[in-house]
Write a structure and sequence with these properties.
Elements: H1 11-17, H2 22-43, H3 49-64, H4 67-79, H5 84-108
Length: 109
């Protein structure tokens, strides 16, 4: 069974925020993907690094329209390390959806 990820990122929100400038949108999404690799590493470490990572992810997610990811981060901030798994799942879903979206942009160029 394939997980439906079509709700991971609200791309119309992002397109509106960026005034339809797809060069900017692609750059922002590229930066989000690059930063995600750092966040993933921080989420997997022992200690309290996850707290700063989750807070940073929350803001970045909301900025690109990945509202379910932002909600997962907010929940993790409230409940502690037990919420990290949900953050990882939501981050993975957002990254997958971003990749598909960016490929569709590239195909149109």
């Amino acid at each position: 069974m394939t997980k439906d990820i079509s709700q991971a990122v609200d791309f119309p929100y992002l397109e509106g925020f960026a005034a339809g400038d797809f060069v900017v949108i692609d750059a922002v999404l590229g930066l989000f993907c690059e930063q995600a690799q750092i966040w993933i590493a921080l989420l997997e470490t022992d200690g309290d690094q996850w707290i700063d990572a989750v807070h940073t992810i929350k803001g970045a997610a909301r900025g690109i329209g990945a509202f379910p990811l932002g909600e997962a981060c907010e929940h993790a901030e409230a409940i502690g390390p037990a919420g990290i798994g949900a953050v990882r799942q939501a981050l993975d879903a957002a990254l997958l959806e971003v990749e598909v979206y960016r490929q569709s942009l590239a195909a149109k160029a």
